[in-house]
Specification:
By secondary structure, this protein is an alpha+beta fold. It has one domain. The protein contains eight helices and four strands. The protein has a four-stranded antiparallel beta sheet with strand order 2-3-1-4.
Length: 177
């Protein structure tokens, strides 16, 4: 969390403000005429979550009381069984290039189709886990949201902000450079 990030969520970009690091990625939310509402809902949630630092981070039960009911109810129930761990780095290195590409396609498909639990979403919003920073978000037109996130490198874990767009009303979310 940074003071600048919180200011951008609340007030927008300053004239001439430039991103640091690797640059920005545009998360494009396709909507059904409700892009302004999607932007407003996303910012409402981010205003609650982003300012909370590591030392003050809430438990999932506390977040359930803080976040709006419509938002909390949009997530899948918590899984009783934890999913099998992903390949560790050593195993990844042993895969052929084709196998790595296949696994990447499966992971991308899973991320598009998986139902997120609130616990999983909050994990990726925790300050120590979040690999992106809010840059700017606006409705390009009634059917499209452009949410620019600042990233330190690529690839980057953008599932949580993509899920936020979906929960807030986007029908589909893709990313563009």
């Amino acid at each position: 969390m940074s003071v600048d990030e919180i200011r951008r969520i609340r007030s927008g970009l300053r004239p001439g403000e430039k991103p640091f690091g690797f640059g920005t990625v545009n998360l494009v939310g396709r909507c059904d005429g409700n892009a302004e509402d999607v932007v407003a809902r996303c910012k409402d949630i981010l205003r609650l979550v982003i300012p909370v630092d590591e030392k003050e981070w809430h438990s999932v039960d506390e977040w359930r009381k803080i976040l709006p009911v419509w938002f909390v109810r949009s997530f899948a129930p918590e899984r009783k069984e934890k999913p099998r761990a992903a390949l560790d780095y050593e195993a990844w290195l042993k895969l052929s290039d084709d196998a790595k590409k296949g696994r990447a396609r499966k992971t991308e498909k899973y991320n598009r189709e998986a139902e997120w639990s609130l616990e999983a979403w909050l994990f990726w919003l925790h300050p120590s886990e979040r690999p992106w920073r809010y840059w700017d978000c606006s409705a390009a037109n009634p059917d499209e949201v452009n949410w620019f996130v600042e990233v330190d490198g690529w690839p980057n874990a953008l599932g949580a902000p993509m899920q936020l767009l979906k929960v807030c009303g986007a029908d589909e979310v893709v990313y563009e450079w």
